[in-house]
Amino acid sequence: MTMPVLRSLAPVLAIAAVFGLVATLLDNSYHQLMLTLVLVWACLGLSWNLLSGYTGLVSFGHAAFFGLGAYGTVLAHVHLGLTPWIGIPLSGVLGAAAGLLVGLPTFRLRGHYFALAMLAYPLALLYVFEWLGLQEVSVPMEREAPAAYMQFRDGRVYAWLALGLLIVIIAVTRWVERTRFGMALLAIKQNEAAAEAAGIDTLAWKLRAITLSGAIAGAVGGFYAVILLVVTPAAVFGMLVSAQALTVAMFGGVGTVWGPIIGATILIPVSETLHAELGGMLPGIQGVVYGIAIVAVILVAPEGIYWKLRDRFGRRAKADAAARTAAAPPVPVDGTVQRLPVRRPPPDTAVVLEVRGVSKSFGGLRAVRDVGFEVRRGEILGIIGPNGAGKTTLFNLLNGFLTPDAGRVLVHGADMAGRKPHVLCRAGIGRTFQVMRPFARMTVAENVVIGAYVRAATDGEARRLAADAIARVGLSDVADRVAGGLTTKQLRLMELARALAGKPEILLLDETLAGLGHADVGDVIEVVRRLADEAMTIVIIEHTMQAMVRLVDRFVVLDHGAVLTEGTPDSITRNERVIEAYLGKKWTAHA
Ligand SMILES: Nc1ncnc2c1ncn2[C@@H]1O[C@H](COP(=O)(O)OP(=O)(O)OP(=O)(O)O)[C@@H](O)[C@H]1O
């Protein structure tokens, strides 16, 4: 086994040893039950975390999967005589199916609407199970062969079983974190549109996440039924279940395997003790504890205790890393704005992208009107025009963010109009954004690797493609830096690298030079030129004409959504209509 794997296993084994030891030493059955509950809620918190912690889509409805699992295991035992040893895995399958069924319609909703819809499922199930007359279903006692039916007199066995379940779920979560699965979920959380544009099929990954999360919640529900012995709709579909899953994860730390474990270890004993001591006098005291926990977390550590501690103790490590990267040499370029020397061989004649009669309206506004042009392999095409001329809308139509009302977008002759962004990315269209869309908490390398998955069969290949793309834009020295701390130029180059990592045939660059100082413009242009020298086909939107005339082979000029004219830089800069509509008199004076 390699060192990194051993190192990643060490904390899990340490936690398991501590919980295992505590479970073994406890001789009071109440404390044994408490420990088992801590582990059960840690498991459910991990299930919640897998969906909501990594994708950012908050679920208020995990009780739906949990409750179905609980009833599934008990009813299979009651009616089919099925042991929970089989019933619990089957509850996992039931939870997975429920996850998929819930995910398919619900992922069409965004933000708060997703959270609200998720709230409805367990409530609906609660009423359905009451209506079915399943108010109280008891686990049948099996006196003949109790162990075969997961019935033990020694309460510690349940704690050990719960610990085993927790370890399996930690292992699954770790696997998700370390593969493209986890990277895709994090990318969705940080910027779903950018993730799609980078070739990630966001709907497919979200469905996988909710299916896996539902499977875990279903299995945990089945196990919970075994320890409770009696299942009621309120106990397994109730609001408190979903709230508990969410709170332990949010309190401990979202988006990390440790969060739900920390959260459950602190919150469950507190709320259970209060419930036992004060529940008679103050019914619902658990809800109050969770309410206070949520408020405390929001105020003190919005992302949970784990991240707060990590930020505090990790600060020194971060400062060291910053000191190391501060010394990084700048991108090796001349940096001056001068007419660039003769360039790469002329573009060949193969048409890579053909746009025919594309139109798009927003209500009454015709943002893009019957636009058509061709782009040849190795060509740099500049799209220019006044503000609001429809340039970004055109890009959105080319990379699938928008569906044209009419017209065709032919990539190598195949009409791709209206296909999803990740499909267009796979077809070879990479893009960057006018308003940058970095995955701010990820490092440069992680940001870029997201773009590589579309072409890579393995995670190793994706890392290689990403490293290559980072080197091509000259960011190798800052590859390990968190994107949130980069300069505008570095962010622009990182976005370029992310698009490059997917080995696009055509790069759509949307105002890549915006917000850059004079020297930085020269640096970035140099990088774009180098890409063109390597026969990359580039379509670029840019307002900085001084830079554009030196860079592009041909211009398409848009005005009021339509093509005003197209031609070489020389002809365009002398064209009266272009001067009037866009360049203005100042340009003529300057030129
Ligand atoms: N989603 C939308 N809904 C409604 N109107 C939109 C939408 N997106 C763009 N528009 C409008 O369409 C027109 C074209 O906008 P677009 O952003 O494509 O122009 P642009 O040429 O990229 O401008 P700029 O140079 O300022 O970025 C504008 O009038 C804009 O207000």
TrEMBL record:
Its main location: membrane. The keyword Transmembrane applies. Gene3D superfamilies: P-loop containing nucleotide triphosphate hydrolases (3.40.50.300). GO terms for molecular function: ATP binding. It is a multi-pass membrane protein. Signal peptide: none annotated. It is found in: Cell membrane. Pfam families: ABC_tran (PF00005), BCA_ABC_TP_C (PF12399), BPD_transp_2 (PF02653). InterPro entries: AAA+_ATPase, ABC_AA/LPS_Transport, ABC_transp_permease, ABC_transporter-like_ATP-bd, BCA_ABC_TP_C, LivM-like, P-loop_NTPase. Keywords: ATP-binding, Cell membrane, Membrane, Nucleotide-binding, Transmembrane, Transmembrane helix, Transport. Residues 353-585 form the ABC transporter domain. The chain crosses the membrane at residues 6-26, 33-51, 57-78, 85-107, 113-134, 155-176, 215-241, 248-268, 288-307. This is Branched-chain amino acid ABC transporter ATP-binding protein/permease.
